[in-house]
Design a protein that fits this description.
By secondary structure, this protein is of the alpha+beta class. It has 15 helices and 33 strands. The protein has three domains: about 15-50 and about 80-230, Phosphoenolpyruvate Carboxykinase, domain 1, CATH 3.40.449.10; about 230-300 and about 390-590, Phosphoenolpyruvate Carboxykinase, domain 3 (Alpha-Beta Complex); about 305-380, Phosphoenolpyruvate Carboxykinase, domain 2 (Beta Complex). Bound molecules: oxalic acid (OXD) and manganese (II) ion.
Amino acid sequence: MKTKEAGSLAVNAHVAGWVEEMAKLCRPDRVVWCDGSEEERKRLTDEAVRRGEVIRLNEEKLPGCLYSRSAENDVARTEHLTFICTNNREDAGPTNNWMDPAEAYGKLGAIFDGSMKGRTMYVVPFLMGPKGSPLVKVGIQLTDSLYVVLNMRVMTRMGRIALEELGQNGSFTRCLHGKADLDIQRRFICHFPQDNAVWSVGSAYGGNALLGKKCLALRIGSYLGREQGWLAEHMLILGIESPDGKVDYVTAAFPSQCGKTNLAMLVPPPALKGYKIWTVGDDIAWLYPGADGRLWAVNPEAGFFGVAPGTNRKSNPNALATIQKNTIFTNVVLKDDGTVWWEGLEDPPLEGTDWRGRRWTPASGEKGAHPNSRFTAPLLQCPSVSPEWNNPKGVPVSAIIFGGRREKVDPLVYESFHWRHGVYAGATMGSETTAAAVGHTGVLRRDPMAMLPFCGYHVGDYFRHWLEMGKRLSNPPRIFHVNWFRQDKGGKYLWPGFGENLRVLLWILERAKGKGPARESPIGYLPVPEALNVSGLDVSRETLEELLKVDRGGWLEEAESQTEFFKKIGDRLPKELVKEQTDLVRRLAAVHE
Ligand code: OXD
Ligand code: MN
């Protein structure tokens, strides 16, 4: 294989040929290859500041931090403009938008055509996963957005390291991204799993434009995982160190904006002295069966792209410590002293500039930060970062947790009877929608394994793959379901959440070790109230009972409403899951009130 020099980088001919072809299409004035060096970071930051793409924040108070404001119509993922482009429509399944690959290349090609005239095309080689990991993947993103380049630097292992991994012949995901004119009518995020390619045009929003994250690590990743025998999941990974120094790992899947980052960085409450949480990842887990019959987890990312509003000293002190330097803030309030603010951080400033760039005061009655405003920060800056975060092998998983945002019905925690039952619990997860995606918020939707917007193939085949993975594990993790968001009739949360969630994690870990008192119920095993350590916690016995109650009528309705979703999946829905649903109804019906 011939190599070509791109700046000081040796590039294999496949990569060079593809970049040339894409440059011919987009017609940038210049092509710049990124090597990931510190010198490059400084140069590109200076350039982004000069062009007004970002603003430098107060160097003393927030060293190395940048501020960015997006176009007003470009603040969240646009699921209705996101497509899986498989040759066969059926393979994308009923939960994805589908476009014929030839049509997609044609339609997007016409938008990309000449769209980078007067601009620079950056070539961003990146790794998802630790170097040397059995799951590591190489991507090359082409983009005309410096903001995107600077974010990719934080979120991935970027530059020379990726070209080295690629070597001479390795395969890579071809990721073409362009802002074009940021017109929502000309915005498309298209995935071509059969070509290992992503084309995204018309948006600079993280989930649409940082193509290593949702596009590669989840949509393309889930497709590759099915072919290669692993799982790409929308999950945090954390380690729980007990007072005796032993660390156990769990993964947890919650939909966007349901507290994955907070849980991943949890600080134990004073009553649970001696425990410590280690953060491996806050958004994505790649899971594979190890030679030891256990499930192993790797975080493919190297940074956090976290939701700012609501992040504060109480909800997530570790996140706050993480974002004090080298962080990119997007769509928050810019204070006059060159620092930042968002709703829920602390007392508001007297005035500032809001996410739209207008003068703003708290009295205006409008939100200063967009509800989906974000921070992008290096994982390594997190005080609770796990020493294992970059371990190529990953960490062994003792428990998998599914969870949603549910006002009613779902109890605080329950354990599934076995792997198949746990897959059913994950597959039928429901959650109220949030601001991470464009559309109405607070509407209940089925979000299987929190992967509804991210599964890159037919959801029925995805459930089948989960069931098959279980068979390959001689020592599988136990599967649990949690709901931190139960409310009383007045709309008050019943469970304090945040650091107190560790109390639930500890019961989960005990159960994972085959211990921990539980009662059997129609929906699974629940802790008896005494099984949860609530010392020092202001939660009454009645509230605890309410949180751990099985609402029989609510569950029967729940099971009934899953039928709609199952019907939509059609023939490819594994029969085993229908059996789990029938068994649940039978168990509920057998309970005498
Ligand atoms: C995210 C999301 O940004 O899920 O992680 O939307
Ligand atoms: Mn996410």
